[in-house]
Request: fold
Amino acid sequence: MPPVEVVDLSRLQFAVTALYHFLFVPLTLGLSWILVIMESVYVMTGKEIYRDMTKFWGKLFGINFVMGVTTGLTLEFQFGTNWAYYSHYVGDIFGTPLAIEGLMAFFLESTFVGLFFFGWDRVGKVTHLLVTFLVALGSNLSAVWILIANAWMQNPVGAEFNPDTMRMELTSFTDLLFNPVAGVKFVHTVAAGYVTASMFVLGISSYYLLRLRELPFAVRSFAVAAGFGLASTLSVIVLGDESGYTTGEVQKVKLAAIEAEWDTQPPPASFTAFGFPDQASETTRYAIRIPWLMGLIATRSVDTPVKGIKELKRDHEARIRGGMKAYAALQKLRAGDKTPETLAEFDRNKADLGYGLLLRKYTDKVVDASPEQIGQAVADTIPLVAPLFWSFRLMVGLGLWLLFVFAASFYVLARRRLYRSRWVMHVALWSIPLPWVAAELGWIVAEYGRQPWSISEVLPTHLSVSSVSVGQLYFSLSGFIFFYTALLIVEMYLMFKYAREGPYGAGTGGHHTQAATGAAGAAP
Amino acid sequence: MIYVFDYATLKLIWWLFIGVLLVGFAILDGFDLGVGVLLRFIGRSDDERRVMLNAIGPTWEGNQVWFITAGGATFAAWPLVYAAAFSGFYAALLLTLFALFFRPVGLEYRSKLADPRWRNAWDWGLFVGGLVPALIFGVAFGNLLQGVPFHFDADQRVFYTGSFFGLLNPFALLAGVVSVAMLAMHGALYVQLRTEGDLQARARRAAFVCGAVFLVAFAIGGVWIASGIDGFRIVKMPPAESAFTPLAKTVERVPGGWLGNYGQYPWMILAPVLAFAGGLLALGASWTRRAGTAFVLSCVGVAGVVFTAGLALFPFIMPSSSDPRSSLTIYDAVSSHRSLQIMFWVVLLFLPIVIAYTAWVYRVMRGTVTEKTVRESGHY
Reply:
């Protein structure tokens, strides 16, 4: 059993570096499509201003993009450096989508991103648009494969434990690809990226509008962002609901923890909109409940019960006892006893092997764990409820607020009232950070809610780490904190500087002036 | 599931695939690393440095993906190698990672502000981002050839028992010199190919110096391997066709054993021959102003060096000096038959596509980069 400090520091380091990486990913995912939209208009209409838009937003895209590349490298390295046992235990399955991501997506994105910046004068208009499209396609395909890998951590389908090699091995590639969690996760995540990018463009365009600068440029950018953002926000919310449904099916613990549902309610379950969950007494104080809602979200029916935490813990205790039998049989197999009885005993219980491994935190001899140790392991199977409960509600609240911002922006634009609705511009400008907050909270819900597992019901987090020392972790963690802080300051400085300067101060090669284009012509 | 190849054959094919990805990385991203190392030394003015950066600018990002994909493919095909090497070489790997941070941001941000202190700082960053990874990759290979102190327990958990400074032993440092000098030569030849004037002349001289150091160090390394370093040999193992863990085999150490493969399969001598011939002829072509030929020959030399090390180790990937049977080989560090088969198709389908569009991008961006073109259409 690896030392607790090593486990905690490894988790902290992964959480910090993953959340940091995801400060840059959403903007890449969404802004690449916004560039495609703008450049398509340029190619179709031949209006130079759309070329200027593509170049200017492309410049901001580049400042962000390299940070995504830089910090993505960390995540790939970290599986090996800090999660070596995890890499051994599930590399046969988990490594596959990561390798495919490199070959199919990251190559595409990275090869063409250079041409996007350097190729304006080297290839024709239509070819350049194709290049931009391939960058967007590559970055989004990248998300497909990463989320297939992540979905497998949440819902490990198509794999089986092999006692000969002491690891999980792939049994069905198609199950891995068509994991129900992967589909909804992909759409929810990339759509969140589109929302982030739309908010970014909407907010910065509002900044120009408020200062009456670059009006033709700003209005057109505002319009693209409002339309794309509204559609994307709706997808995020619909797919968020859909992921509630798949979570209800395959990640019952996470759902119960998000909802602080301590007891199984008679169907259809009510939804706790607000309250103060208390894990020690397994109650939620001052709960405000909306009848029926949770049953509908999680089961799409009125007569299927949604299991509460107390009932789930009883289930888990049974599975831990099954896991002890699996562990005992595995030890016999490993010692060379390959009799049909031992094999049958292992096969009967192997689905619970992961639950048996939870006991390794408390005893090296899983087979004769005491009732107290089993009790401790059972308690571990439920993640901390309060952080999940609050993160989730804050995320949903932010999502609804963003829907309002985009709807309002779209409305004033469509009704040709934008210039008279300065409050919309103020709201859009100050809402720029909110999609990032929502996205980070979403990841906290997804990954913190997966605890105590690194691979749900298969491999506990505490067994997944490398055999490294606390000193090594302090070295790496302080390195990350130092470099990431410095890089964030530099990135933000450049982003603010170039956004403030605007399209015609940033040397994007545009030669439009407001007078030449005529603000009146573009005014909605 | 239809298995076109048996498990033993796929294990072999995957050794070749990882080798190809590493060669792709060394050839393509290798010259980017080399340009980083040389940036401050052959680029005397800001304009010259911008010429160098804009010469690699449009393509370096794709080149780096060879490294990332080699990592991902190692994870997928050799999970135990991924686990043992990355956690064992912890500090070295993190230093590499921190150094690699400087490249994407360095290239993109350097010319975004005009302040000379800002640009100068990033130039040092790009130097570190080129030197440290090149050095550590060489040092890592140097250590693989000597064996690394690690072992597995019954759960297949890997324990590394060496220290970071233990990695910096004389032979490993020599391997580091080979790697840095080779990639610096390679980078200089690329600069010679893509630029003109004084910068081009300086690149040619740098290629000559770095190339000479590389060839001498590589030759010393060969002698050292033959006379002073024990190789490893598998004494007994379960059939290659079956799935088994590293501890199921027995391994012995053999003085000069890394030359065993070259004795047994003489055609393998082609790899070191190509390394030397490629390097030497590249320098000859460079000196006689045939930059294109020189660069191609340099690619051959780089590939020869990577395969020389790989073939010497074969079938070992990461031998263990402290517990030889824990050594990782192409037979016991691998993924399941099914995963190898699926990934075989993926590589076969996508790698040619990648190579095709990469070639197209290089074609579009071909030609000499000058201070004039940088001012007009440079991005960095």
Notes: The mean pLDDT of chain A is 91. Chain A touches chain B through 72 residues (CB under 8 Å). The CA atoms of residues 94 and 461 of chain A lie 15 Å apart. Residues 215-250 of chain A form the longest helix (36 residues).
